[in-house]
Sequence to fold (836 residues):
Amino acid sequence: MDRFSEGLRCQDVTLGLRDVHPAAGQLGLVRNIQLVGMAADLAGLIRGRNVIDQVDSLEIVAAETLDIPIMVLPQVLEVLATRGMVELDKRDGRIERVIESVPVFRDLYTTLGEAWRNRHPRQIEEELLVVVDRIARGPVPLEDLTSGLGVDPADIDELYRLGVDASILKTVETVDGTVLYSPYTAFENPSAIRQAIVSHGSGPLAEAIDRVANYQGYPISPESEPVLADAVGRGLIAAPAVVLPDGTWRSFASLPYLFDQSLTRDRKAILDRALAIVACVRCGQHFGGGSNTRDAAAVLEALRDRDHLTEHPSHERQYKLLRDLGVIRFLPDSRPGGSWKRPSLVRTEENIEAINLAIVLIRGQEPLAGRQSDEAVKLLLGLDARAIKPLQATARTRVRPAVSNRELSRAFDILLGRGEL
Amino acid sequence: MSELDLNLKLAARRLAWSQGFATRLNVPLRAYVEKKVGRSGFQEYTDLDVLAIAVSGSGRVESQIFDCKTSRRNTTERTFWLRGVADFFGASDAWMLRPTEVTDASRQLADRLKLGVMTKRDLDVLISMSQTVAPTTAVERLFEPGKVMKVREAFTSVDQRLQKLQEYMNYDVWVYEPYRNLSQMVLHLQSAAPILDSSSPIHVAIVFDCAWLYAVNLAHAAEFVRRTNASDVYSSLKEYFLGGQLAIRQQESILRAARSISPGKAIMDVPEYFDALAETFVRLYVHPGIFVDAMRYCEVATAGLVDGRRPHLSTTLGQQYNLISGKLVMDLVTFLISSAKLSPSFRTLVKAIALDAPADTRSSRFDQAASDRTDLDRKLEQEAQLNFDDTVGTSELGSERADRSPLDGDRCAGS
Fold:
């Protein structure tokens, strides 16, 4: 794994660990991941603030919005300080002021990946990141963790329990055994995984999904891609269909990895539009009619940044889906007597977000949206802590799971001398 | 520079400062000419008595120049001359300042030529209209002839080995295209790095003065980025830094040739400090007003350092101090220090000056005297400031953590 992926996956794991009780003994195993993941969250929160002299405000906002316990915040800040992203002014050992220099252009996650590496992580932490990184590309059978990913068999149980408890790993039981997938993979209907595996076997399905994950907007024909066509048919994978020049329909499958889970729930309309946009430009790339699109991302950038695209005979067919979804409107041909269409973006906030997401997917990048605190939260840092305190009472709406019974009984066993020696 | 001229210049400076401008005195403009025996390689056109720079809300760099002469003669001719100088320099506004009177003809002419004409009396009226906050002692230093002369003398009598840097700061920076100064300043500071000593207040003042000049050029860069590609700051800054698209193509062809000659060597299209420059730039870019704040803070810091004081801007600037501006001054100077590979101890000092860092983060010998007395209550410190400086006397500089108003100078001096 490269340092960028390591930094990124630390944040993924940490998001899952928010649901694990802070006193859970398992957290000790992934201390470095959690510290670096929290550092990534915190860096996003404070970036651009320059100076934070209300450290008690930072403590409260970080605790409330990022689940960074107040007692842990100094350690998280130290992680950032070791990479030169903050400077801590202290008096009598207490942090009085944070001087922020989180990079804007330089890559944050590579730097944090290096920070994680320099902390000499435990073997199980390395294994956890490898697994999380692997399932970001699609489901993987549990038995493949040792053979395919090199996970130590002695760590499998611990890894599995930790991953499932923290909701970092989702599982589906099949006749072939347990299959792991990521909660951040935007399956349309995750429960359809089981039937798809039963029909095709976990290996072929994983391979097919891998192809989509590596090429968003993958064109699917039932003849050449029977497994993917079936997965789309079962509603497992989203694949908007576009009309080809010969009048037939073709599906273009996408399976993004989304840290921002709101895109799969209350803001799903944006994801649907993004996937439709991806399908339409992929259609132009593979089945353009007169001429194929050479750079699909460049077309989308032009659609976003210019008033309209120039007229083309295939536009009306190719972008009809986007017109129906309200993403674009067709402007008439600018030439006298012309009948071609010029697509023009309907400039709503949602459409712009959808087109930006589509550009990221087309480029084969991982969407980073949702990994930083929004501006409203950042503004809280400028407030006096006394003004923020009421938020502590109102914002705590999330149900915090108590220590699991298994964890508790295990701890008692050890305390009473009944634990494994 | 006659004493009378200086008083007029300082009056103009006070006006510009009260209007929110950053200021600079005696800016010479010169041209490079062919070197011949018995002739230096440049000839001076003229100089700007007072240059004032601000950045508008839309990010445009605005400049005013002031022509300050005590002589009453030739005001009409001088008006034409001033129009030419203003056009040559690209000044947004130009003023002719005379102590008592100007001819009626020159007032009319000034209006036709879109210039300003004023006597000292006009100037006092304008100052009273624009000065909403009484300047603190540290700011007043910018308008006191003795202190200003001290800065001038300190900078002209500096170590001869810094002459090249001084030449650049005094002359070349105004001759080069602003985009070139983003790299030229770093290069000149790099050359001076072995000589610049953080224990010398004059040297620290020079670094702050460099930051003043650099901020002007960054403001020009910000204007370019805003006008051309506001959403892609990094690429746009890179284009500006390299001198525009044409220059980029030219450099790319040179790089191709260089790489074919030495295929194994990594030859970068921008210097290694460019990423750090972009990081510093974007922080200033998002706050257009900060450029001028940064320059004004550097002005105050420079004057204070030359006067033997360590100016803690958060206290010496009083209500005109803004914490974010202070931090960004630190970022700007820190960029120059790191890119030019100056001694890291400069950074500690700059932080103490720009941000008034808490005591236990200070470590350099420059700050030792200050950290010895940090347990004192700030108020007590203000009361006892002068006595304390005299008593401690261990640092090369005094300290200016507490500011005095011009009115309480006698009380402090006598206490």
About this structure: The mean pLDDT of chain B is 81. Chain B touches chain A through 20 residues (CB under 8 Å). Residues 34 and 47 of chain B are 21 Å apart (CA to CA).
